[in-house]
């Protein structure tokens, strides 16, 4: 038994898709979530800035005596994970990349994998490097999709605008004939229906937040992940901008109402 | 003669449209520009955060002994101007709202004005309050257009996607029969062609950055604005994230190459 909470953070609201998975798969676990809504998005920033922000986020989350940290943000995972792992040796830190790569290389049959993500994620080569390390014969087709995050954040999931942008971004990846597509950003699973229809039913879409929770189950075992006898509040949320906006829009990602207190913190102090 | 530079700042690159106007209308002036690219966008953040960021920006710009400060950012102008004016009494600070309102109320004939901007700008009521103070008989039709900034930043000026989003956002304003439309965000003038085609030739589109520069000319007179015998570099640019990206993409807004050094600073220290 380890009653300490799991720490999860993201550049904004998207990481709540990981919290949703934890709620469903490990209903006894406590979660401390931080969404850096005052500095979102990370995906368009430079690697130096992304690393600085990731360090702040981890310093904040570590203040809660968490038993592990999940970096739900594809950009922060891709750019900063090796550095922050090295800097925080005492605590397990898991990004979304490893688990996603693990699943993708097992799913592909024709050895053609597509990767979509923010500009920061795509430029980092994190997913390609991971895939190449498993099997260098796998061909990779990738593209950054900078309009997907604003589309999702403005409720464009399956609209004519969303479908037009999906076609613009995915045309070449579809033409290449991939059978597996990594949705390398927490926001993209909300476009899953429209992306799936465009790509076709034969293409497997991989959601990193779902994979990272699966991976934890395998890697850490059931015991460590069952925290009974909790005293504290089970779900705590922190943000770096307006808590009301988070409570209002977070439900889209959590697929239920935000069930816990949302507090604003000054992340630049961490 | 006052040889001190004019300070201009914006949440990102859009404020370069004001610098462009200064270059064209006051070719002898020096400019210090700050683009808060590490914390862009402002338009979706809470009023408290927008004010805090605006204060940092002004503290940074004041370090250059500027003779005046132009807040090119529609959101920062709308949310923070009264407060920062009060806090910085010694130096003239001009936002984009006053000059834009001045022009709009003189342009409208049917007394129906449309206002579009970021969510922060629209929620602030800055333009409507200004218009109502001039003439309370003017009817206002407004809408936030949160996808316009990402569209412009990704090169969608006159594409099918841009036109579809323009229709979504402007449908009601067009139906209301406005004859004047305020493009209340530095990015929107880059959509001018497509917006103009959708609204029709009888609708006057007003670009706040152009108006603020016109307004300076009238308000401050020619003498103060002619700074001859400059020693220093004429155009200096500062950003809070990757200078290379700024130099690369800034030309879209400046409508010429970035002609000066771009330096990165840590805005959170100001």
Chain-wise SSE layout:
The structure is a homodimer of 270-residue chains.
Chain A: E1 6-10, H1 16-25, E2 31-35, H2 47-62, E3 68-71, H3 74-87, E4 93-95, H4 97-107, E5 112-117, H5 119-124, H6 126-134, E6 139-144, H7 148-153, H8 160-175, E7 180-183, H9 192-199, E8 204-206, H10 208-225, E9 235-239, H11 243-254, E10 262-264
Parallel strand pairs in A: 1-2, 1-3, 2-9, 3-4, 5-6, 5-7, 7-8, 9-10
Helix pairs in contact in A: 1-10, 2-3, 4-6, 4-10, 8-9
Structural commentary:
- Two copies of one chain form a homodimer.
- With 270 residues, chain A is an alpha/beta fold.
- Chain A folds into two domains: 6-95 and 210-269, Rossmann fold; 98-208, Rossmann fold.
- Chain A contains eleven helices and ten strands.
- The first copy, chain A, has helices at residues 16-25, 47-62, 74-87, 97-107, 119-124, 126-134, 148-153, 160-175, 192-199, 208-225, 243-254, and strands at residues 6-10, 31-35, 68-71, 93-95, 112-117, 139-144, 180-183, 204-206, 235-239, 262-264.
- In chain A, the strands form two sheets. Chain A has a six-stranded parallel β-sheet with strand order 4-3-1-2-9-10, with helices on both faces.
- In chain A, helix 9 (192-199) links the parallel strand 7 and strand 8 (204-206).
- Chain A is globular and about 50 Å long.
- The two termini of chain A are 30 Å apart.
- The model of chain A has no long low-confidence stretch (mean pLDDT 92).
